[in-house]
User: Fold these one by one.
Assistant:
Number 1:
Amino acid sequence: MALITWTADQYGTGVGFADSEHQTLFGLLNKLYDEATGGAARATIGASLDALIAYVVDHFAHEEREMLAKGFGGYDRHKAEHEAMVGICADLQKKFHAGQAEVTEEVGQLVKGWLDSHIPTFDMSYSDTLK
Ligand SMILES: [Fe+2]
Ligand SMILES: [Fe+2]
């Protein structure tokens, strides 16, 4: 079962690129979660983990470019939130590929929890400026 389902009610920012990228991101997260909790080969899980993290980094950079371009006042706080998440991802990625960590149910729930908090509070706050 999907870990996270995009709905406009819960996650819509009204900013086209962001809503579309969030849906792609959710799809990559669900794929990783299904593989990790469904006993897929470790190499498959690793490839999906890398793909998700690369997409997250690109998505954050895209939001940051747009916020800067429009002079959005919440840029610094928003970027700091992104950087904290990239740090968590990079740490997990490094440990996974060193055989020191696995992608678990808890990892999936942690990322979902972060998105459940970040999108409604931080991403929705740029809605009026970036629309
Ligand atoms: Fe976002
Ligand atoms: Fe964001």
Number 2:
Amino acid sequence: MKIKNVRTRVFEWKGKIVPPARNFCTNAADLLFERGDNMGSFRFHGWLVCEIETEDGTVGIGNAALAPRVTKSAIDEYYAALVIGEDPFDTEYIWQKMYRRTHAWGRKGIGMTAMSAIDIAIWDLMGKEVGKPVFKLLGGRTKDKIRCYASKLYGQPLDALAREAQSYVDQGFQSVKMRFGWGPQDGPEGMKKNLELVRTVRDVIGPDRDLMCECYMGWTFEYAKRMLRLLEPFNIRWLEEPVIADDIEGYKELRKLGVLPISGGEHEFTLAGFQQLVDQRAVDVIQYDTNRVGGLTAARKINALAEAYSIPIIPHAGQMHNYHLTMSTLASPMAEFFPVHDVEVGNELFYYIFKGDPQPENGFLQLDDDLPGLGIELSDEYLKDFNIIE
Ligand SMILES: [Mg+2]
């Protein structure tokens, strides 16, 4: 059984969007002096879909969200030819072939994102060929159901924030994640506003639910150090990506302070990248993104690494490939869940392009033991709202 065809398409959203708001979420571009739309680098309203077909007509579906037009070119121009003619069950060899043949430029960033999309499609394909869900190929069921946390609560007026937090309590979530709106450029007043956001959510969810806080790389080491002390009374389960992904030393030093657990890895690539994070004891929680890290083939190796070091894995983003990984390892105690919502930052597009993602009940997700592959399909419900680039 050989791979016969690789098809890529970019789905660009042209439907209704929620207009961008100020102080919605800190991000790595906040330190630049340009003002204007400071959320520009954070939003992504396009998604790459990669379909891989074997000689018998079985199609596996992969995807990637990072710079989809460029990622599409990388697959079309380079990676597709490396994959066509291979047996999809030789996943390790295919991965190494893609990795080594493009090593000069592909080992991080766009190249690894393209590889991730292909790898996800290959795992879906393998599941469909043998009639098993992907998690059964990765190690099988390790939990009765998957605990998940509601991940949204962007910066907004405090009354609206409180209402949103209450809605997650009402839906039965035991854990929620919120975003900060202010960073180093905003001085002590911004710090106060950040604390008001946290206080508002903590007051609504009470002391017995987990609260996680996301900086999305929008802070500096010095700012984060000051904020950590101020956040200590709120019993934060983890502070996420306080500094940019390359500042591993910053993660390590913040963690050493022992004030709050520090999480990261959403913008790191491959087993090699996570080996550095783990070796340096830089994070308390590993949050790889399967869409970037090198697909499921790389992610399962990072699961093994994390297990060896007793570091929990909680992958970035809700989405089927992450749920299958979470289900298949004890090293992963929980999944991120993005509530279904009008199109805003772009995470939501997944629900408009695909169908089949499970919805939580009382804060837990379930995977079907008998549904082959990843269990998602392309949806045609919203096709009119997309510009599709072949
Ligand atoms: Mg994050």
